[in-house]
Specification:
The protein is of the alpha/beta class. It has 9 helices and 6 strands, in the order βαααααβαβαβαββα. The longest helix has 17 residues, at 29-45.
Length: 230
């Protein structure tokens, strides 16, 4: 694992996760989604808050998303889930012209691969100031609700946009979501929270920085990392 900015001269497709990647985890935007998911689990299962939280995180860990777990185990309507959990206040995401400029200057296509939905992604991008920055947003619906880190999610993405993984780079906050990208030949970068970040809604595994070969680079400053590439 390398914490310095590498040369990515071979990259023609730049693929970014959305949540806790294009905006800092510290702004706690996803904490709003997270708590709404807990209440959704409570409604579906009739569990009390603490038990619902435990089940939510178990599904998130084991199925890739809580949504996937709820669909498999409880046959919920994914559209109702997505509309419910993304009814949040987006103002904690501040404009980030430095990041937008750094992404815009990258040579090649810029795409988002997110386990959220397109409406959520567009709301985040609007706040950041990058409405027109990405050629495509490949969301959980486009994945037919099979999320990262499952191989099927990536294979469908590559096929839809004719992406050669050996000429692509993947940026994600969760190290487990970089396993398949590395196996397919993508350059991988984990975007992490600032040193010392803790939050009562975030479990330790969500903040793990892996030392395995699937995480080639790590940064807590995405804008700075990208500036060093260009």
């Amino acid at each position: 694992m390398n914490t310095s900015a590498p040369r990515f001269d071979h990259v023609t497709d730049w693929v970014f996760d959305l949540d806790n990647t294009l905006y800092p985890r510290e702004c706690n935007l996803f904490a709003q989604v997270d708590i709404r998911i807990t209440h959704y689990v409570m409604d579906v299962t009739k569990l009390e808050f603490d038990a619902a939280r435990t089940l939510q995180k178990q599904y998130y860990r084991d199925f890739g998303t809580t949504l996937n777990g709820l669909m498999i185990q409880h046959q919920i309507d994914p559209d109702h889930f997505l509309n419910t959990v993304h009814a949040i206040d987006y103002t904690p995401v501040m404009p980030h012209p430095e990041l937008i400029a750094a992404i815009r200057d990258l040579p090649g296509r810029k795409l988002i691969l997110t386990n959220g939905d397109t409406g959520h992604a567009r709301s985040v991008l609007r706040q950041l100031g990058g409405d027109d920055l990405f050629e495509h947003v490949h969301d959980i619906r486009a994945m037919t609700f099979v999320p990262k880190p499952h191989r099927e999610a990536y294979d469908g993405f590559f096929a839809r946009y004719d992406i050669d993984p050996s000429r692509a780079a993947m940026f994600d906050d969760l190290e487990k979501n970089l396993v398949v990208p590395h196996e397919t030949g993508m350059a991988t970068v984990q975007v992490v929270a600032g040193e010392g970040f803790v939050h009562e809604q975030v479990e330790a595994w969500e903040l793990d920085q892996a030392a395995g070969p699937h995480v080639q680079h790590v940064t807590a400053d995405l804008a700075g990392f990208l500036r060093n590439l260009t």
